[in-house]
Amino acid sequence: MKTIKPTRIVIASLLLPAGLLFGQTTNAPIAASTNAAADALPDPFATAHAKNAKLKQPAIIPVQKTEKPNWMPQHDANVATARKGGIDLLFVGDSITKCWVREGRNEWNARFVPLHAADFGISGDCTQHVLWRLQNGELDTIQPKGVVLLIGTNNITSGNSPEEIAQAVSAIVAEIRKRLPATRILLLGVLPRRESHTHNDRQAIRDINERLSKLNDGNQVTYLDIGEKFLLPDGNMNKELTTDFCHLTPKGYEVFATAIQPSVNDLLKKP
What is the pLDDT of residue 8? Predict the structure, then answer.
């Protein structure tokens, strides 16, 4: 029987505006990573990360999530919402953003709906999925005053390195600026995940956020790290604020909303 060799596909590197790059210019039902019990084990994630690294998608190459049948309907709903207009404040991200209208609905309705906010979070999204969404209709018919961007946590368990994740978030920022040049961006640092402050994912988040902080320009892009708000004095996550040491409880969203409210207000009042 003749053996058919798999076809190899090479994708060209993505060029980003020089002002948004750092380091080397190398070429949202709640989804993955919600097993809180796994944190109690020695560290099974070391093996999981190694497996994911072999199967990982490039964090910076836009891709449609075809493996999730409910993903495109959610994207289409976002596009339809955008076409209706009337959006002054747009939240973009994964399940943590998506859950503003679920676990965080009280804060969402009280604080952000009056600001004409829309929630474009999709559970399970990585940076590459957000990039695809923004390039395929979700920003085409709106001109919000501000965008609140939180993305990257799912890339950690998908095997991407902190440098890859940070460069992909930079690409998302560049995409927003290209399509919405008058819109100001509140870029949030990746929130803590895993209960223990010694977990490898915590160091990855610190590495990612250190890179993201360099995107702050004091005008068009404001970087804000609120991660410490969800931690106890010993650095472990506050169980009162999280359902699984990643996603947030209603109390967690209250803390979240209070932490970003001044920056959101500043975002919207700037000319």
Answer: 42
Catalytic, out of 39, 94, 119, 244: 244
From 33, 75, 94, 95, active-site residue: 95
User: Which two structure tokens, joined as six digits, stand for 179?
Assistant: 């399509």
Domains in the chain: how many in total?
A: 1
Cα–Cα distances in Å, from 90 out to 29, 44, 69?
A: 21, 37, 24
For 265, the domain range is: 60-269
Instruction: Check if 95 is active-site.
Output: yes
CA atoms of 167 and 109, how far apart (whole Å): 33
Is 244 annotated as catalytic?
Answer: yes
Beta-carbon contacts of residue 85 (< 8 Å; ≥ 6 apart): 141, 142
Whether 28 maps to a domain, the answer reads: no
Does residue 76 lie within any of the structural domains? yes
Q: Which of 194, 131, 205, 154 is nearest to 32 (CA)?
A: 154
- Identify the DSSP state of 219: S
- Domain of residue 177, CATH code: 3.40.50.1110
Q: Sorting pLDDT into bands at 50, 70 and 90, what band is 217? A: very high
Position 186 in a domain: yes
10-59 pLDDT, tens digit each: 333 334 443 444 433 333 333 333 333 333 333 333 333 444 444 578 99
33 is catalytic: no
